[in-house]
């Protein structure tokens, strides 16, 4: 019985951001964000994809759920064909705050928070109302719908996934 209580407490602390969930880091050192965005924009321009900015922290349980959904069998092909993903570490809301502002992300609404850039770097979408901040209560299909809505428009061909 004590083990169940300890596991429940650990889960609650992780959800609250007090304890760090297990697993590899999703978000790199905050100092990498600008270089990662620049590299993503070059790749996006060369491959005619959009840039998906994912603001979050390694302590964030909902960010980990988003990452799981990004890698599932439905969403992974959509992302690979249409987006270059950049994970932007916001620390404990004390890092890359200027980038969040630049891309219209209200961090006070919570993370994860997403923004979509065109291949030329134009802001096409930024999450304003905490749409994904409670990712654990959403289904993977919520992300699928988002990805379909924001993928670049291309002429239909055999090479395009989910045309």
Q: What do you see in this structure?
A:
It is a single chain. With about 160 residues, this protein is an alpha+beta fold. It has one domain: 3-Layer(aba) Sandwich (Glutaredoxin), CATH 3.40.30.10. About 40% of the residues lie in helices and about 15% in strands. Helix 4 packs parallel to helix 6. The radius of gyration is 16 Å and the shape is globular. The N and C termini lie far apart (about 50 Å).
Helix and strand content put the structural class at alpha+beta
Indicate the CATH class: Alpha Beta
Rg over CA atoms: 16 Å
Report the uncertain regions: 1-20
Helix percent reads 25-40%
* Secondary structure tally, helices: 6
What does the largest sheet look like?
A: 4 strands, mixed
CATH architecture descriptor text: 3-Layer(aba) Sandwich
Share of β-strand residues:
5-15%
Strand-and-helix sequence, N→C?
HHEHHEHEEH
Beta strand count: 4
Rough outline: globular
Look up the CATH topology: Glutaredoxin
Looking at CATH, the homologous superfamily is: Glutaredoxin
What oligomerization state is this entry in? Answer: single chain
How far from one another are the termini?
A: 52 Å
């Amino acid at each position: 019985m004590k083990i169940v209580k300890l596991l429940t407490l650990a889960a609650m602390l992780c959800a609250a951001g007090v304890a760090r969930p297990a697993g590899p880091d999703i978000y790199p050192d905050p100092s990498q964000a600008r270089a990662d965005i620049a590299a993503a924009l070059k790749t996006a321009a060369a491959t005619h994809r959009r840039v998906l900015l994912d603001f979050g922290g390694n302590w964030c349980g909902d960010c980990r759920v988003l990452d799981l959904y990004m890698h599932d069998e439905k969403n992974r092909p959509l992302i690979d064909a249409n987006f270059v993903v950049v994970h932007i570490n916001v620390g404990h809301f004390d890092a890359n705050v200027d980038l969040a502002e630049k891309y219209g992300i209200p961090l006070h609404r919570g993370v994860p928070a997403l923004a979509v850039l065109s291949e030329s770097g134009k802001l096409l979408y930024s999450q304003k109302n905490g749409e994904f901040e409670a990712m654990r209560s959403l289904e993977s299909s919520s992300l699928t719908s988002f990805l379909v809505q924001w993928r670049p428009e291309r002429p239909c061909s055999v090479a395009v996934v989910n045309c």
